[in-house]
């Protein structure tokens, strides 16, 4: 008989809407597999994404609901603020800790599919920045799921596809419009997978944390302090893997090294903006006091406040230019705008 691939998990971030529409347009109405979509969205965005995908192809698309069955021939989209997970053939929506600052997280869905479905699953990584989804795709491939990745040259943002390919070099690389037909063909081909290894303890731990299942904490013999603070809660973080590229805090917030660097850049920029506001307010106050002292005939005091006003404005102008240059540099690093 063999095993049939009856679960498809799609993950994307920036630029992912266009790629998702292309993939969904290529899926037939009689697809014999369920389709789960995870893409970090703003509050209420999950409903909007489901509506967009519902119009993109013949398959119905709905926002996922907790406890709903995993339904072949239906696209179920992760809602904002919840990880989309699996319990056998039932959907689980979890308010577990954010990963890389996001809930839902692509990695969380892919890990769950790897554990629950293994060789029955097809994982697809599409356009996006940073690396949410890369580790999850590797976990799925290690459990003999099929890994497909959008051609980086075809993606609005190539970062996520490139990082997925670095983690899963054997993944099939396709343009977005070719992924739908490829998925359809894979779901109709029974196959005999080799023996599936048991899930790694680290994989099970990550999945348990995403589900908010009580159990041993993340600290212990196999972790050590990273000497860093979590951008989400400011708690102390530990290294969670031997490669030294993944971190968690005691709350459970998870960060890859690359996402952590980006979050620290954002925090640094916010700190600079607070400093800029303080300088502008200092200059405004000094200017007001300068005018008042001039009106009251106090030249020495007037001169002192004028000097403070000028100094604060010079420093603020310098800081403002520095912030603008930093924002421009981050924009160039992130790549082109897309939706």
Task: Summarize the structure in words.
It is a single chain. This protein is of the alpha/beta class and 339 residues long. The protein has three domains: 7-187, Methylesterase CheB, C-terminal domain (Rossmann fold), CATH 3.40.50.180; 217-252, no CATH class; 259-334. It is 44% helix and 17% strand. The protein has a seven-stranded parallel sheet with strand order 3-4-2-1-7-8-9, with helices on both faces. Strands 10-11-12-13 form a four-stranded antiparallel sheet. α4 links the parallel β7 and β8 (146-150). The chain is elongated and about 100 Å long. InterPro entries: CheB_C, Chemotax_prot-Glu_Me-esterase, Sig_transdc_resp-reg_Me-estase. It catalyses: [protein]-L-glutamate 5-O-methyl ester + H2O = L-glutamyl-[protein] + methanol + H(+). Pfam families: CheB_methylest. This is protein-glutamate methylesterase.
